[in-house]
C-alpha cells in the first residue's frame, strides 16, 4: 500500500486524472509533531467506487470533489466534500462547511465541548453518528481522540466520508455501518428521506434499504450520540430502548422535524424516553432548557410554542435541535 505523509502547509494530491488540493494552515506544535499517515490507495478505491455509482470515470468532468481543512481548538482534519454539480443530497450543508469550516455554531460548540473534555481521556469513548452524511461529526470526534460508529443508508455520501477517513489516517477509528437505523427492518430510502415499506414494492425514487437496531450493534458505553435523520428520529430511538434504559449516552444531540403529522406523537414517545432516562434538554429554537412533555396535551402545547419561528403551511419543513445532558454526566 502506498503511504505518504501530509505536509502541514500545502498538499497537492493527484489521483488518476483528478487533483485534490488541500490548503493547510499552521497547526499548534503539539498537533504538528504527531503526523498523519495518508493512504492514497484507500482514498483512490473509494473515489473509484463513488465515480462508478455516477456512471463516470474519476478522470471525467462528471466527477468532482473539493476539500478543506477544518480546525477546532488544537485539532484539525481534512474533509472531502462533493461539488454542487454532483447533485449529492444536502449540498447546502456541504457549502456551509466549505465556506465557513464548520456547521451550525450551537451544535458544533456542544460537540466540541464534549469531545475536548472527554475524548482520549476518561470515561466512555464511543460516539454514535446516526445520519452521518459526509461525516462532519464522525471526523470531529476522531480528531479529538474518540472512536465512532457512523450510520447512513446513503452509500454515496459514505464514500466521501471514507475518503476523508483515509486522507486523515482515521479509518481504524471509525466503524462505518452502511445501513439506516430503525426499529423496523423493511424500510425505503431515497437518499434523504426514509419511510416504512409494509411489504409493498418500493415507491418511485425509493429503494428498500438495509437497516439495523442500535440495541443490536452497540456493545459498550456511549459518550455522545448524534441523531439527525430528517424525521426518522422516533424509529431510531425506538431501536435503542434497551440502550437508553440500561446505560444511556452521557450526551445527546437530536433533531425533531415537527410538522410531519405522522410523526407528531412518536416524538412524544422520544421525550418520554429521555425524561425517564434522566436527561435535561435545551431547545435551539426556544433557546432554553425546557420541561419535556410527557402527555399528549403537553406536547401539543409545546408545538404551538413554535408558531413564532415557523409556519408549516408556508414552508417545506420546520425543525428544532436539542442538546441533552444525562443527569449523571459530569
TrEMBL record:
Residue ranges of the TM segments: 6-24
Pfam families: Methyltransf_21
Residue ranges the record marks as coiled coil: none
Domain Methyltransferase FkbM residue range list: 129-281
Keywords carried by this UniProt record: Membrane, Transmembrane, Transmembrane helix
InterPro entries: FkbM_mtfrase (IPR006342), SAM-dependent_MTase (IPR052514), SAM-dependent_MTases_sf (IPR029063)
NCBIfam families, per the entry: fkbM_fam (TIGR01444)
Name under which the protein is recorded: Methyltransferase FkbM domain-containing protein
Amino acid at each position: 500500500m502506498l503511504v505518504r505523509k501530509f505536509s502541514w502547509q500545502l498538499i497537492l494530491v493527484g489521483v488518476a486524472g483528478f487533483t485534490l488540493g488541500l490548503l493547510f494552515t499552521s497547526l499548534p506544535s503539539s498537533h504538528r509533531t504527531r503526523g498523519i499517515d495518508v493512504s492514497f490507495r484507500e482514498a483512490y478505491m473509494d473515489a473509484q467506487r463513488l465515480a462508478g455509482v455516477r456512471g463516470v470515470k474519476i478522470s471525467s468532468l462528471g466527477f468532482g470533489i473539493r476539500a478543506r481543512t477544518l480546525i477546532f481548538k488544537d485539532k484539525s482534519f481534512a474533509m472531502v466534500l462533493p461539488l454542487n454539480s454532483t447533485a449529492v443530497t444536502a449540498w447546502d450543508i456541504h457549502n456551509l462547511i466549505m465556506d465557513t469550516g464548520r456547521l451550525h455554531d450551537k451544535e458544533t460548540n456542544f460537540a466540541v465541548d464534549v469531545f475536548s473534555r472527554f475524548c482520549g481521556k476518561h470515561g466512555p469513548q464511543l460516539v454514535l453518528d446516526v445520519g452521518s452524511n459526509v461525516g462532519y461529526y464522525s471526523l470531529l470526534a476522531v480528531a479529538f481522540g474518540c472512536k465512532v460508529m457512523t450510520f447512513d443508508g446513503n452509500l454515496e455520501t459514505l464514500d466521501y466520508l471514507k475518503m476523508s477517513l483515509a486522507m486523515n489516517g482515521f479509518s481504524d477509528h471509525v466503524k462505518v455501518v452502511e445501513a439506516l437505523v430503525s426499529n423496523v427492518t423493511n424500510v425505503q430510502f431515497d437518499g434523504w428521506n426514509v419511510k416504512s415499506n409494509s411489504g409493498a414494492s418500493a415507491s418511485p425514487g425509493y429503494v428498500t434499504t438495509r437497516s439495523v437496531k442500535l440495541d443490536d450493534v452497540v456493545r459498550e458505553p456511549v459518550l455522545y450520540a448524534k441523531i439527525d435523520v430528517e424525521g426518522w428520529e422516533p424509529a431510531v430511538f425506538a431501536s435503542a430502548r434497551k440502550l437508553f434504559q440500561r446505560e444511556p449516552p452521557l450526551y445527546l444531540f437530536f433533531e425533531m422535524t415537527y410538522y410531519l403529522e405522522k410523526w407528531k406523537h412518536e416524538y412524544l414517545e422520544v421525550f418520554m424516553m429521555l425524561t425517564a432516562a434522566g436527561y435535561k434538554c435545551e431547545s435551539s429554537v426556544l433557546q432554553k432548557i425546557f420541561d419535556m412533555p410527557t402527555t399528549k396535551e403537553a406536547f401539543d402545547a409545546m408545538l404551538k410554542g413554535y408558531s413564532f419561528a415557523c409556519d408549516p403551511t408556508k414552508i417545506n419543513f420546520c425543525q428544532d435541535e436539542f442538546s441533552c445532558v444525562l443527569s449523571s454526566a459530569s
